[in-house]
Structures are given as structure tokens and as C-alpha cells.
Amino acid sequence: MSVTAPLGFRAAGIVAGIKSGGARDLALVVNDGPSRAAAGVFTRNRFKAAPVLWSVQVLNGGRVRAVVLNSGGANACTGPLGFQDTHATAEKVAEVLDDSAAEIAVCSTGLIGERLPLDALLGGVGTAAAQLSRDGGLAAADAIRTTDTVSKISFRRGENGYMVGGMAKGAGMLAPALATMLCVLTTDADLTSEELDTVLRRATSVTFDRLDTDGCMSTNDTVLLLASGASGVRPDVAEFEKVVTAVCGDLSRQLLVDAEGASKAIAIEVVGAASEEDAVAVGRSVARSNLLKCAIHGEDPNWGRVVSAVGTTDAVFDAERVNVAVNGIWICRGGAAGDDRAKVDLRPRDVTITIDLSAGPHSATVHTTDLTAAYVHENSAYSS
Amino acid sequence: MSVTAPLGFRAAGIVAGIKSGGARDLALVVNDGPSRAAAGVFTRNRFKAAPVLWSVQVLNGGRVRAVVLNSGGANACTGPLGFQDTHATAEKVAEVLDDSAAEIAVCSTGLIGERLPLDALLGGVGTAAAQLSRDGGLAAADAIRTTDTVSKISFRRGENGYMVGGMAKGAGMLAPALATMLCVLTTDADLTSEELDTVLRRATSVTFDRLDTDGCMSTNDTVLLLASGASGVRPDVAEFEKVVTAVCGDLSRQLLVDAEGASKAIAIEVVGAASEEDAVAVGRSVARSNLLKCAIHGEDPNWGRVVSAVGTTDAVFDAERVNVAVNGIWICRGGAAGDDRAKVDLRPRDVTITIDLSAGPHSATVHTTDLTAAYVHENSAYSS
Q: A125, A235, B314, B354: which sits with the fewest CB atoms below 10 Å from its CB?
């Protein structure tokens, strides 16, 4: 169902010829209203792709009629001509929908530094517009894949019957192959763009922002939330946030499981922190330790590599009070060896590393993957 | 020649039985004076190994009679008992030298979280003391190896005939397998501990601190500089700094080339920066991009992965004025595609990535390695 699960949305995913090989490479998602309220969050990378620069401006207006997305090229680091290509794409969508380009968001994903084939792109927009339908969500989710092995879709029903749907590809803070995380969320609930903005920032901060498979940040990351209001339901905003967070969490999990070359999904659960910021900082530092990620790949419960990563942060803790468990066995207690590490079973795909800072009541979980030879192989051969 | 190249030093490297397999695992370096002035720099990791906690105290006094170093165990995260083991080791060295433990520095390297075999260690101190000699520098350098495939030694002669010698193992900011960087530098020049401290901080900040092979920071990193004054030469401090920096640079280069699993030595040269701090921050960010390191392994001049890493920093630059060259070919100009990337020859082991921020006159070079399946294999199997 994906982005077309909520009322008021049509979508399509088609072969525009941007990618070689004949796979789907262009998606169009249209909001038929009655509302067009929308919000977006974007990469913090200072090299922002042309579609990001464009869509930031569109979202400043708080209204989105449609989103056009392409795989097969990121349109990043392409200069003023690349920005013109994005602009022309938005104009083409506006033309086929008989609407304003100022309400058309654009997303691109693929290699950095190359211009998109504009004729294929603009032709594809026409084809996609002709195929828009209420059940086009799956084809749209398929069309935005790059190295993703499966489409990522999700939906949840909220109180009083409104729906939230979504599709995603690649990864954000995961950034496998800088393949970019793109995500479009839709709802038929009726909310203002300000409400959507608040909810989207909060939901992404505890889901997509806490995925970190290789520490790399894309030039193109974009998460959009579009509301049609077609259900007529005005939800409680707190309840709506829970539903959106659940959809984002579900999509995040799908991204994690499909991360390039990974054989383990690692949850780094930081508890006993003096603040949530401390917990996230510690989790992120551990998630970025190549040595730890190699150890988990080798099913070695190497807590020394955990505490070494903890020790590089500014978080509040006393080294002699830090405890670490791997899959529930507290193998480090008080900053030194604890229970028998032979008791740790690292054979399952899911691994939980719990770090107790003994410094306060706050917690956070950051998700990452192991580091494998397959990751190296996939990313050594990406563009050549 | 190593640490015994300068006058006034004796050393030994022996088999104490700390490592299984019968390799050398204990080194002793003794300063016979007349001066005992010394300085040290240590890991910034907040989980500091017992020998680091001990040696920091010793170096606060500015005088070192001897350094005892062991491989086969890091004595990190071993609690109060681990600290007692370090103390006992220093006392044993003091006893055999008929000197004060307060002037005995201790260094350890190996696995985190396990106690050292104290009997083997103390017995080894006696054996090493009996073998101390003016040509023991090579054996000492051999005894501190862990995953190092070769011993790292260096020496330089300064003006008016004084000498600076050194030995090193593993890696500091490189931290292959958290194998720790240990380095002992010696000189027969006559300088105060304050002068040595200033010189050592400056020399390490532009050499060891600019190696970054996997972003991991050890619990045990230690660099010591001991001056015997035995040459009678009081060097010009600026000239002395150049010689010490040359020795540190030489040892850094040896560490880089021997980093675990690496097939490329990558120099990330940042120019046109608004400050040296900016240049180092950009260099370090690029050095830590797993995606770029995979690309270089695959001999793919993927400048998109370079600018993506640059874009995550706070350095002063305008994205539209950044230029990137790989091995001298400016494949990114003005933040977009530049010269033909097919002209880049990435077959040599040495790779230079030049990043021109077009923001000022400052520069810095950070050194790293590629990311390979061999790195993953070596670090998946380290302790299991």
C-alpha cells in the first residue's frame, strides 16, 4: 500500500530510461487534497544536491501537490546546470498536473557529480502522470531503489480511522554507498504544515537519525510528510506523532536489515545516561567503531572495543562505574571484566549491546550493522 | 639503533612468557644520564589503562630513569588490581636498578580487560635488566610488537652531533585492532623537561596525531621522550624540534605502511583552509569515510565521497569553490565534475587526495589507509 494507503493520494513508478538495464527509475506521488499541508527534513551535509536545494524552498511554503523522485543519478555537485535540471523537472510535473511548480518537491538518488539525462527524465514524468493510480504505491517504492534489494513500505491506521503510509529507500545516516535515504510519508489526516513539521522532526530524530551503519552522510537525504486531509479526521497531534513514529521506525528497521553487506543488526542501547544527548553521543560513537563492528561480525563479544569507543565521548560518566552487556550478559562491570564472556551467544542476527553509564535516568538506542568483507567489496566496485 | 642510538641509553628486549608462543614480549629502556629530563603525551581516551594512569604521574615529575614496556596484554579496564600490577612492575624495575619507582614509566599493549601474568612480568624484568646493553635497541623494538609485521625504529643526528632515536609499535589514532601506539624517543642532547614537553607536543601534533586509519582511539597510547644529556650538546630548541619531528614523521610513516590489512597509503592534503584547525578537521573527516576508503581500495577516484565527507564539517568554505584532485588530476572543480577522471592513475600504493577549500592560506595533511576485506578479517578474529 505504501504512500497510497491513505485517501487522497495517487502514485506511479515507471521506467524512464535514466538507469541502464531497464529497471524502474522514476516515481511520482500526487496529493489530490483537499489539503496540501506538508513538511520536510533534509540532509545536514553542506554539499546539498540540487533537488534538496529546490525542495527546501518548496517546503518553506508548507504546501506540496506532488513529489517526483528518480533513481539512477543524485544530481549532486552538478552546479547551476544541475539546479536548472531539477527546476525543469518540477515545471514538467506542474505542467502535466496543471499546477504550480512551487508546490512540486523533487528527490534524486544515485551517483554524485553527473548530470541527469533530462530528456529521459521529462519524458518519464509524462509517462508516470498517465499511470497515476490509487494502487501505484508499490511501483513507486520499487522505482526509487538503488542498491536496495527490496522495496521498503509501511503503513499504520490511527485513531478514528485516518491512515499514515510511507516508502523509503537506501539509508540516511546509514548511507550505504552514499545511496541516500529518501522517504515519502503520506496521511489522510488533516493537520497544518506547522503541526506536520513538529511531528516529522520529532519522529525522525528518534528513528532515521538513530541509524548509523557507516557514519557517512549523504548529499541528498530527504524525508517528506504530506497530508491530504481526505479522511476528514483531525487527529490528536500527540497520537498522530506516535503513528508517524511507528511508520518511521518500521521503515528504519527495513533499511537497517537491508544495509549493504551487513550480516548483523546491532542495537546499541545506552542507559543510565545523564541526558538523552549523552546517550545518543555514546551510542553513535560505539556505532562508528570499525573495530567493534568487525568484532561483532566475528561473533567476538569484545567489550574492550565498546568501552574504548565510550571513552572518546564527552558524556558524563565515571570509567569505574560503566557496565556493558552483550545479548544480556554483563561481561563488563565497573569498567572491568564481569561475567564470563563465553556465556554470550552472538550467533543470532540481532545483537543488543547495552551500555550502563551509571550517571542518570536517560537512555537512547542507536542502530548499526557489522562491518563485513561484503561491505568492502560492494563499496569498492560501486561506480567503476 | 633505535632508542640506543643516542649516548646514555641501554636497552633490552626479552621473552618473559607473557605472550604465548615464545616471542619477545618485554622491553626495558634505561637512561644512564647524566640528565633524566623527560616528557610524555598520552591517549585522550577516558578509559585510560593502568600503565597510562601510572606513567602520567611519573611524567608530572619531569624525570624518567627507565621505561618498561610489555606486549601480550594492555592492562586496561582491569580495576585497582590492574593498577597494583603496574605499580609492582615499576617497583621491580626500581629494585633491579637500585632507583626510585617514581621515575619508572610503564607501557603495556595487547588485549583489554585481562590481568597480566604478574610472575612472568616481574621475572622478565630481572632477565631484561641482566641483558641491558648499548645495542639492545633492536631487541627492545621487537619486544613491543603485537600485530606489527616489522619493528619500527628511527634515528637522526642533530646539529653539533647530538642524536635522537626512537622505536614505536602499532598505531595511535590509527589504532589497528586497538593494538595501541607506543613510542619511546631518546636523545643525548641536554634539555629541560619543559623544553622536551613543548617539543614533544608540537612534534606529535603534526605526525602521530595526523595518522587516522580507522578512527579508533586506544586506551594505552603513549609517546615518551627521554633526554640523557650525555652528548653534552645543548641544542637550539627549534632545531631540536625539527629533528624530533623528523623522527616522529619517519615512525608515523612506518606505522601507516604496516597498518593492518591496508593496500594503499593515502595522504589527504587540505589546502586553502581558513585555519590549520579547519584543514585538520576536513582531513580527518575524509580519512574517516569508510565509503571513500573502500573506493580507493577499488581504485575508483570517487570525488563525490570526498566532498560528502568535507560537507559534514564546520570548516569555512563555499561548496561552489571547493576543488579536489586525486593523484594530481583535478577531477572536481568548483564543487562539480572537473577534469576527466579516467586520467587518474590509482594503481600505485601511495595515493594523494588534495582538497582545496579556497578559503585561506592554511594547510594540513592527514594520513590514512584504504579499507579492505583483509582489515575486516584481521579484526574479526583478533581475540577469538
A: B314
Q: Is the CB of B113 inside 8 Å of chain A's CB atoms?
A: yes
Q: What does DSSP assign to residue B73?
A: B
User: How many domains would you assign to chain B?
Assistant: 2
CA gap B90, B70 in Å, rounded: 12
Q: What DSSP character marks residue A229? A: -
CB pairs under 8 A between A and B: 210
Quick one: B247 and B283 in the same domain?
no
Do residues A124 and A17 lie in contact, with contact meaning Cβ atoms separated by under 8 Å?
yes
* Residue B315: closest C-alpha in chain A: A46
Q: Residue A360: which domain range?
A: 265-380
> Which mean pLDDT values do the consecutive 10-residue runs of chain A (384 residues) have?
94 96 96 97 91 97 98 93 98 98 96 94 98 97 91 95 94 47 95 97 91 78 96 97 96 86 92 97 92 92 92 94 97 95 95 98 94 84 53
C-alpha cell at B90: 615499576
Boundary residue ending a domain (B257, B289, B304)? B257
Kind and range of the H or E run holding A122: helix A118-131
**CATH code assigned at A280:** 3.10.20.340
Segments in chain B forming alpha helices (H): 50-60, 79-97, 118-131, 137-143, 193-205, 237-257, 276-287, 290-297, 303-310, 373-380
Note whether B131 and B7 are same-domain residues. yes
Q: Which of B236, B257, B278 is the last residue of a domain?
A: B257
Do A294 and A170 have their domain in common?
Answer: no
State the cell numbers at B313. Answer: 564539517
Q: What is the pLDDT of residues A26-38, one digit of tens each?
A: 999 999 999 999 9
Instruction: Measure CB to CB from residue A336 to each of B113, B304, B382 and give the nearest one.
Output: B113
The residue of chain B nearest to residue A82, with distances taken between CA atoms, is B336
A16: closest CA among A145, A113, A126? Answer: A126
**Torsion of Cα atoms, B151 then B156 then B162 then B167, to 10°:** -20
Give helix then strand counts, H and E, for chain B: 10, 15
For residue A240, the domain's CATH number is 3.60.70.12
Cα of B112 vs its chain's centroid, Å: 18
Shortest Cα distance from A159 to chain B (angstroms)? 40
Which tens digits make up the pLDDT trace of A253-275?
998 888 878 899 999 999 999 99
> Is the same domain home to A252 and A290?
no
Q: What is the pLDDT of residues B115-165, one digit of tens each?
A: 999 999 999 999 999 999 999 999 999 999 988 889 999 999 999 999 999
Clarify whether A180 is annotated catalytic.
yes
Residues in chain A within 8 Å Cβ distance of B303: 112-113
- Name residue A337's beta-bridge partners: A332
| Short-list B303, B299, B342, B280, CA closest to A380 | B299
**Residue A145 and residue A239 share a domain:** yes
Residue B177 clears pLDDT 80, i.e. is over it:
no
Backbone angles phi, psi at B79, to 5 degrees: 70, -165
Which residues from B are below 8 Å from A50, CB to CB?
Answer: none
Which residues of B does the annotation place in the binding site for substrate?
146, 169, 180, 260, 379, 384
CB B315 within 8 A of CB B273: yes
Amino acid at B383: S
pLDDT tens per residue, range B21-65: 899 999 999 999 999 999 999 988 889 999 999 999 999 999 999
A29 and A68 share one domain: yes
Q: Are residues B42 and B137 in the same domain?
A: yes
Q: Do residue A210 and residue A283 come from a single domain?
A: no
Q: Please state the rounded mean pLDDT for residues B271-292.
A: 94
ipTM (interface pTM): 0.85
User: By the CB < 8 Å criterion, does A291 face chain B?
Assistant: yes
